[in-house]
Amino acid sequence: MGIYTRTGDEGQTSVIGGRVSKDDIRVEAYGTIDELNSFVGQAISLSEGELFNDLREELTQIQHELFDCGSDLAFVKLGEGDYKVKAERVDQLEQWIDLHQAENPELERFILPGGSLLASTLHVCRTVCRRAERRTVTLAAHTEINPDVRRYLNRLSDYFFAVARTANVRQQIPDIEYIRSKKVFRSK
């Protein structure tokens, strides 16, 4: 199979159920999810050693789920197939967030993205995930989508924040508080 098809040379691309412009909001949404998936792959490659076995497993599962998100958004018409992203995926993310948050110190102020190379990459994942979510919200304003994709992306950005902090904790690198931040988070 050849890598190039020449079918996109005129600025169109195939989606499930038709062809659209390469700058279509649907393509922007699932293209941003694809970009996020690449950064997740980078984070996996940086999570070496036994210290991060759980993170590698979680991030690998997330890569598959991001492919599912893109697939679900590639449908031009509802009802053309069963959606892959379900509410249970959001529930799983919440469980992982809770586990990682239990490992992290309490937050009082905003923190700067950074720390270890792994944590920094996970913060990049968080911000690209937020952009993917925004693109998905834009798409949903124009057409019906699988609402679980939007919920999944929203929770996934929270996951990346929590796990970036966990990566720093495990490497004994403190979060850097934003120096102009007042205390904005309350203890439970």
Q: What would you say about this model in short?
A:
This protein has about 190 residues and is mainly α. About 60% of the residues lie in helices and about 5% in strands.
Q: Could you explain the architecture of this structure?
A:
- This protein has 188 residues and is mainly alpha-helical.
- The chain has a single domain (12-177), classed as Hypothetical Protein Ta1238, Chain: A (Up-down Bundle), CATH 1.20.1200.
- The protein has five helices and four strands; from the N terminus they run ββαααβααβ.
- The chain has helices spanning 25-46, 53-73, 87-103, 117-142, 147-170; strands spanning 12-15, 18-21, 111-112, 176-177.
- A hairpin with a 2-residue loop joins β1 (12-15) and β2.
- The longest helix has 26 residues, at 117-142.
- The radius of gyration is 18 Å and the shape is globular.
CATH architecture: Up-down Bundle
User: How many helix segments?
Assistant: 5
CATH third-tier fold name: Hypothetical Protein Ta1238, Chain: A
Assign the structural class, choosing from mainly alpha, mainly beta, alpha/beta, alpha+beta, or little secondary structure. Answer: mainly alpha
Contiguous uncertain segments of 5+ residues:
none
Shape: globular
**CATH domain class:** Mainly Alpha
The CATH homologous superfamily:
Cobalamin adenosyltransferase-like
> What is the strand arrangement across the widest sheet?
1-2
Question: Order of helices and strands, N to C?
Answer: EEHHHEHHE
How many beta-strand segments?
Answer: 4
Distance between the termini: 56 Å
Average pLDDT value? 89
